[in-house]
Amino acid sequence: MPTTTDADASHSPGESSSSASPSRRDAFRRAGHVGLGLALAAVPGTLLFSREAHAQEMTPEDVLTFALTLEYLEWQYYKQALSSDSSLSFPGNAEAKFTEIRDHELAHVRFLEDQLGLNEDENLPSFDFTAGGMFDPGPFDDYPTFLLLAQAFEDTGVRAYQGGAPALVGSDALTPALQIHATEASHVSVVRRMVAEEGLAPDQDAWIQGAGAQAPGTLSDYKNNAIYAGEDEMTVAGSDVAGIGDYSNELVTEAYDKPLGMSAVNAIVNPFVGGGGGGGGGDENLITGFENPGVVGSGEPISVYGDGINSQEVVNGQFVAEVENYGGDGRYPGMSVKPDGLGFDTPLDLTDTPVLQIDIGVSGDASKALPVHGQILTSDGSQINDTSRVDVPADGSVATYYFDASGNDGLDSVDEFIFHLNEGDVDPFTGTITFDTFRRRESVPNGG
């Protein structure tokens, strides 16, 4: 639980001072925990790690709750695209196809709600399908953008079901989840063919490709191609499939589509969740999407600090810091975000949005994990600290970190956000730290 402290209890930049919701159905309570190489942490202030990076147990309810959020997203995406508020013009039979897909997604939503004991739309979040203005024009104003995001959501969704399936083994939900997965795979094929026919990726196949898979068009820079991360993996169930037969690595790897861990899915989807809705408006709770290079750097509203910084800059809507021998014992480096330089009325009031969310990626020595913990500085000199430390694996994967500061005093007068990086009794770090999409929200989302 984050705690509020006086100013001398911690430190500021540059100083060198030494639940998950209860189960709604008895069936899930009886099912118990099933081990899974995925991480899903609903504890405030924790980090969701990728499947390969960290093993943690999940319940079937965890998986279905997360799946429901994805199904809500896909249903709402097609529902809004087909509504009278959309300005899209669909060629040929595309409108009929997307109407059918929309209805499939709604059927999935209603089934998952029933399994979780929810009323209709009880957990339906709002969505911003521009991802805070990242996609401009928005998908409901531009058919190519609509197609590209449809492919992104479908390809991500089918890999997410693969990632979550092991946690459903032994539960009654496994068979219907696999049925949903099969239908989502059919959606993948239909949408990918439409994208190819529109000329956006004319050579792509109707299935997700393996090694070398690349998001088409304007998606190519999104999250460093995170939608297809891991598709070049050569190990399947412990067997090395490289060089099987007289085939290329691309053909071999696409024969075994790879699952996505919960953290990877979160990093892809979260920019679209929790906004003001629609495909043309921004997210009022977005603190920064790191789209403006002019606010990044030493002395700017957004900066990393401490010894060993080789560079810090905005690259493709991400804040990228290259560091060498960064942090370690007796050093207190970190990242600072000051909202008064980002166009907000300050001090910033977080009373209604006390949860901070940021996507973090680290690459460097794969044997090293980068410890991170958050801090809020208030205008009266108090500090709200995340008392837990989380470790981001340096394997290039992107993870979503939630800092839940609810219940603390001083949230109505916030001056600065701090993310402490690699401080304390740890080895120095050399590599790349990437920050993507920093926002505030009312609560930690389902599956977060």
Protein model, in words:
The protein is of the alpha+beta class and 448 residues long. The protein folds into 2 domains: 3-17 and 288-441, Galactose-binding domain-like (Jelly Rolls, Sandwich), CATH 2.60.120; 53-272. It is built from 7 helices and 18 strands. The chain has helices spanning 26-31, 60-81, 94-115, 143-164, 174-197, 249-254, 262-269; strands at 3-5, 34-38, 47-48, 56-58, 235-236, 239-240, 286-288, 302-305, 309-315, 318-326, 334-337, 355-364, 369-378, 383-385, 390-393, 395-404, 414-421, 429-441. The strands form 4 sheets. Strands 1, 8, 11, 13, 14, 15 and 17 form a 7-stranded antiparallel beta sheet that branches. Strands 3, 7, 9, 10, 12, 16 and 18 form a 7-stranded antiparallel beta sheet that branches. A two-stranded antiparallel sheet has the order 2-4. Helix 2 (60-81) runs antiparallel to helix 3 (94-115) and helix 2 (60-81) packs antiparallel against helix 4. The radius of gyration is 22 Å and the shape is globular. The two termini are 16 Å apart.
Summarize the topology:
Layout: E1 3-5, H1 26-31, E2 34-38, E3 47-48, E4 56-58, H2 60-81, H3 94-115, H4 143-164, H5 174-197, E5 235-236, E6 239-240, H6 249-254, H7 262-269, E7 286-288, E8 302-305, E9 309-315, E10 318-326, E11 334-337, E12 355-364, E13 369-378, E14 383-385, E15 390-393, E16 395-404, E17 414-421, E18 429-441
Antiparallel strand pairs: 1-14, 2-4, 3-16, 5-6, 7-18, 8-11, 9-10, 10-18, 11-17, 12-16, 12-18, 13-14, 13-15, 13-17
Helix pairs in contact: 2-3, 2-4, 3-5, 4-5, 4-7
